[in-house]
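subagent[fold] <- orchestrator: predict structure for attached chain, return tokens only, no commentary.
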Amino acid sequence: MALASLTTLSQSSLQDYADCPRRFQLRYVERLAYPAVESEPALENEQHQREGEFFHRLVQQYLVGIPSEQVSKLANTPNLQRWWENFSNAIDLLGFKNLTGLYPEATLSAPLGNFRLLAKYDLISVRENKTIIYDWKTYRKRPRNEWLAARMQTRVYRALLVHAGAHLNDGRPFEPEQIEMVYWFADFPNDPARFAYTSAQYERDWSTLLKLADEIQIALQRPQDGFPLTDDEARCLHCPYRSYCERGVYAGKADEAEAELEADESFNLDFEQIGEIAF
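subagent[fold] -> orchestrator:
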């Protein structure tokens, strides 16, 4: 992959860079094929990931108006049946049944240094006094709120909505205090994680994102030493590139790796469908 072709960043790629610059280099700059199993048991984990992706499609179909009864017929595995039942029972709790101002699978984009920052949202719900970002998770373990708060997804999604979401708000930029992010867990339906936002957090987040973009740009100019290995070798257990770095042979357990293995969305986007490109 030519270095000049790296033009976009996402929460996934920024998380990889924050976790291990070398992983970022191998995955997004060199675009190497995965040389190793990410987690064990491999087949079970792959099935769980596919079911998680399909669950997102079920929710998206419901949110665009397909009746719940029809969508439920597509939940054809025990996991999907359980997740869909939990979601159906939580619709009123989540507070978006029969609401307008719903934007499922919305994509936002804005400049970030010399790159474009992209994010694809499961759902943005725009209400009179509150705008809520919903993200559906099919984790087998419920993560700690402190861990989620520090993740790039939480920081990117809220900051980018402030920065590039005005077209969803009659042309007016959202105030950070209007925004909340909710992680809803399909296996823990009554224990969502909620993160409000403030102007101070937004300023801090956007400054951090700009700093990371600048670091990546500098590293691209000196790739031989600009992407060092992480010092935290525990991260290597779930890294598919660990053999390149001589950081182990055996993969970690799947239920401990789920958050590390989420697919990157930035290379599967139709740029004609992006809600805003703020150049």
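orchestrator: received. Logging for downstream: Helices lie at 11-19, 21-29, 42-63, 68-72, 78-94, 145-150, 152-164, 199-221. The chain has one domain: 3-57+98-273.
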